[in-house]
Amino acid sequence: MEIKSFRKAGHFPSLLSAFLYFDVSFMIWVMCGALSLYITKDFGLTDIQKATMVAIPVLGGSLFRIPMGILGDRIGNRKAGIIGMLLTMIPLTWGWLGGDTIDQVHWFGLLLGIAGASFAVSLSLASRWYPPQYQGLAMGIAGAGNSGTALATFFAPKLAEAYGWHAVFGFALIPLTLILFVYMFLAKDAPNQPAPKKLSDYLSSFKHGDTWWFCFFYAVTFGGFVGFANYFPIYFYDVYGDKAIVGGLTKVEVGYLVTLTVIAGSFFRPLGGYIADKIGGMRFLTILFAGVSLMSFAIAYVLSTPALNTFGFMAILTSMLMAMLGMGNGSIFQIIPQRFQKEIGVVTGIVGAAGGLGGFALPKYILGPLKQSTGAHITSFMVIGIIVLVSTAIFYAMTVMWRRSWASREDVSL
After folding, report:
1. Looking at the DSSP assignment, which residues form a beta bridge with residue 49?
2. Residues 41, 47, 52: CA angle, nearest 5 degrees
3. Which DSSP symbol is given to 241?
4. Fewer CB in 10 Å around end: N or C, the chain?
5. What secondary structure does DSSP assign to 73-138, as a single string?
6. Would you tell me how many other CB atoms lie within 10 Å of the CB of residue 80?
7. Residues of the chain with pLDDT under 70
8. pLDDT tens for residues 153-207?
9. Per-residue DSSP letter, 340
10. Contact criterion met (CB below 8 Å) for 177 and 21
């Protein structure tokens, strides 16, 4: 009965379109990470250079998200999505027919951020169609498009083995084109689409302290998810690859292992939104933050304990870590539309950009440098566990303040 009322409450074809657009875009956005073992082999990169290569597309997503969010608010999310997909074809073609130097890889990787910027458009398209009591579920379904990461990590290594990594970018044009046509026919802007505003009106969202706090917390959850998704191929091959241990995993098998962890993070996101609708996003996020910290420490402990350090056990731990991060993403976007109903497009763009910056910083400034300086990944997960533990305490303190300031609002699910 609840599912039936959910479908009647909004516009399911637009929700489906938002999911598909985000799904194919996320697949494209993380392709440098999915192909990292092949790209880095061609150019002989160091640990830090590897981390930089997979982090640059995430940085691009951050840079393009705010403009895409503003574009969606001004011309409608349907038109903005179409423009986004057409522009995404440019770096895919460059990666297919060019990309002969690492500098070129960096540049077309940066432009792949246009695909990552789909976040601001797709989630806004879905959110505007649904009332507050269904925001968590609607945003979770649309946001489950980050499952596109699993498509990239599963298929890209196999295609690269058969045709070379350049060709994989060309193959990606096929599903992008198909979904572009589906989106054009099914997506529809919600009737409550706001009238275009001045640029100063959008930038005024930065004046709200809550905007910055949402940015920080989303940089932890989404930044963790996308940062690990891009870096995990390098991490698992370093620790369990056939050049690291006898009987180790091949590059394609590493892709399968990464796919498992990504699926956990992607498909638990709607569940996170659903649970947040039921028990409150603030309460659930506090639990998830604490869980992410605990899981990071557990991974560090396993890495330092040879008897436990098997890729099967590590797959379970990393999948649990990614599941918690995925549910955290869904929970945060259960709260944001309730706080910023009129500025949802630009705020999701700002917060999404911050999440992308977190995903850029994780491999660039933590995973890569600590691996190169210590020769192992143990310290990285210890540092991450400490950062998230501090974030948990800060988030709990913020929820106390939010409950007081939002208590009088009837449309908020605390």
Report:
1. none
2. 90
3. B
4. N
5. HHH-HHHHHHHHHHHHHHHHHHHHH---SHHHHHHHHHHTHHHHTHHHHHHHHHHTTS-GGGHHHH
6. 27
7. 1-8, 136, 193-199, 201-202, 341-346, 406-414
8. 999 999 999 999 999 999 999 999 999 999 999 999 888 766 666 667 667 778 8
9. -
10. no
- Evaluate whether 105 touches 53 at the Cβ level (below 8 Å): yes
Query: Smallest Cα–Cα separation from 57: which of 298, 356, 349?
Result: 356
pLDDT digits (tens, 9 = 90+) for 43-73: 999 999 999 999 999 999 999 988 888 888 8
What is the per-residue pLDDT for 409? 54
Q: Which of 21, 16, 26, 30 is nearest to 255 (CA)?
A: 30
Secondary structure of residue 230 in the 3-state scheme: helix
CA distance 251 to 153: 11
Cα(337)–Cα(342) distance, rounded to whole angstroms?
A: 8
Residue 362 tokens read as 């994780």
**Model pLDDT, residue 4:** 65
Helix axis angle for 135-143 and 311-339, nearest 10°, is 130
Name the DSSP letter for residue 362. Answer: I
**Residue spans of beta strands (DSSP E) within 196-355:** none
* Residue 176, token pair as written in the block: 């992008």
Q: DSSP string covering 23-78, please?
A: HHHHHHHTHHHHTHHHHHHHHT--HHHHHHHHHHHHHHHHHHHHHHHHHHHHH-HH
| Cβ neighbours around 382 below 10 Å, total | 18
Report the pLDDT value the prediction gives residue 1, as an integer from 0 to 100: 43
Question: How buried is residue 106: exposed, middle or buried, by Cβ count under 10 Å (0-12/13-18/19+)?
Answer: middle
The tokens of 344 are what? 């949802």
CA dist., res. 27 & res. 33, Å (int) = 10
Phi, psi angle pair for 241, to nearest 5°: -70, 165
Between CA 62 and CA 269 the distance in angstroms is 20
Q: What is the pTM of this model?
A: 0.89
Domains of the chain, with CATH numbers? Answer: 13-193+205-406 (1.20.1250.20)
Name the amino acid, one letter, at 380: S
Q: How many degrees, rounded to 5, is the angle at CA 69 between CA 267 and CA 17?
A: 45
